[in-house]
Design a protein that fits this description.
This protein has six helices and six strands, in the order αβββββααααβα. The chain has 235 residues and is mainly α. Strands 1-4 form a two-stranded antiparallel ribbon. Helix 2 crosses helix 3 (105-117), helix 3 packs antiparallel against helix 5 and helix 5 (148-202) packs across helix 6. The longest helix has 55 residues, at 148-202.
Length: 235
């Protein structure tokens, strides 16, 4: 009999190997030639459970110490079965946050939004870079035939243009990174709401987003992606 695939692996392995219930009838037989040298004393976890060690069998009348006997016969009947839904049986799932930020409809929409938002500034930087390259090539080509005054003027103009380009490029990168972080944080916030709804609907005890290894059996990233796409991020 197979266990439910959603059950923990340890529980499923037990069911697959032993079944849901195991009957066990252990029998212990012992004997000794001389009880004075090697007494056989029952009770304890290894023989008769529920009794303190050496609490059964013959005892000394004065000291009440167990003296054991030369023969021993113990019989037990056990019924063994696993208990799902106990403290050792957590319902756990995992979500790959990187995939959420790459593949979700919300993340793709955020990327398109940022592209449009910074398109004009990106084009301006490309135009400055092109102008800078053109003037640099022109100076290299005509430097030998230019007067000192013309050459110094061209070099100064080139230096100022390069400094302006470096400043605008730095500001562009800083602004883009800030806006990207804001948009990705919004995506994760909505994803977390979707994860919480899934957890409540399916009675998960724990859902992790960062792990060294995740068994594909407990990976619910695809389910979260579908939930985000279906709701269009409105949680």
């Amino acid at each position: 009999m197979k266990a439910d695939e959603t059950a923990p692996k340890a529980y499923r392995n037990y069911i697959d190997q032993f079944g849901r219930v195991v009957n066990n009838v252990p029998l212990t037989i012992g004997w000794s030639r001389d009880s004075r040298d090697s007494a056989l004393v029952p009770s304890g976890i290894g023989s008769v459970r529920g009794y303190e060690p050496s609490s059964l069998g013959p005892k000394d009348a004065e000291s009440d110490d167990a003296i054991g006997g030369s023969k021993l016969l113990i019989g037990n009947i056990e019924l063994t079965f696993p208990l799902p839904k106990t403290g050792y049986d957590l319902h756990i799932a995992a979500v790959n946050s990187d995939r959420i930020l790459r593949e979700s409809t919300l993340a793709k929409a955020a990327q398109d939004k940022l592209k449009q938002e910074f398109l004009k500034r990106d084009q301006e930087l490309q135009a400055i870079a092109k102008d800078l390259k053109t003037k640099s090539n022109k100076l290299d080509k005509n430097a030998a035939t230019m007067s000192d005054l013309e050459r110094k003027k061209a070099q100064l103009e080139l230096t100022q243009l390069d400094a302006d380009f470096q400043r605008k490029q730095r500001e562009f990168s800083e602004d883009l990174n800030q806006r990207r972080n804001e948009e990705l944080a919004a995506v994760l916030e909505r994803a977390n709401k979707a994860i919480k709804q899934i957890a409540e609907a399916k009675n998960y005890d724990l859902i992790v987003q960062e792990a060294v290894y995740v068994n594909p059996r407990i990976d619910i990233t695809d389910e979260v992606l579908k939930a985000l796409a279906k709701s269009n991020g409105s949680f």
